[in-house]
Known about the structure:
This protein has one helix at about 5-20; strands spanning about 25-35, 40-55, 55-70, 80-100, 100-115, 120-130, 135-145, 145-150, 150-155, 160-170.
Amino acid sequence: xxxxxxxxxxxxxxxxxxxxxxxxxxxxxxxxxxxxxxxxxxxxxxxxxxxxxxxxxxxxxxxxxxxxxxxxxxxxxxxxxxxxxxxxxxxxxxxxxxxxxxxxxxxxxxxxxxxxxxxxxxxxxxxxxxxxxxxxxxxxxxxxxxxxxxxxxxxxxxxxxxxxxxxxxxxxxx
Length: 174
């Protein structure tokens, strides 16, 4: 699927969700940039979800990742190569602790590689924390992952696997 067609589909879904919003819908996402040695990673992850109970939420995010790295050619020259990746990440969120505007949660989630026939990359739990900044905005952080990653059991909880997002919450119906 080419990039223009993908952006058209995402725009149509976003416009449809705007028309059907109610108290429980939210949109948001995160943006990140990482560089290490000769590899650069630009990560954009739009997200939408629906809270159908004070403790339960379902949602989906998509990860759009551009990886650039220096590659040495046969002539011993360095070239910059870029590869684009696209992943789908559906989730079910359980809020197990709430106090005022602060919430601790765990997402049961999967990561599916949209570039290669939606192969499963990981399935597991992602713990997180959220804080409602205003009536319309919530800051969210995911801290690690516990589950199966590329068919191997993995537990990564710590600051080396930290993601931040910002959500826009639609007005509550009176």
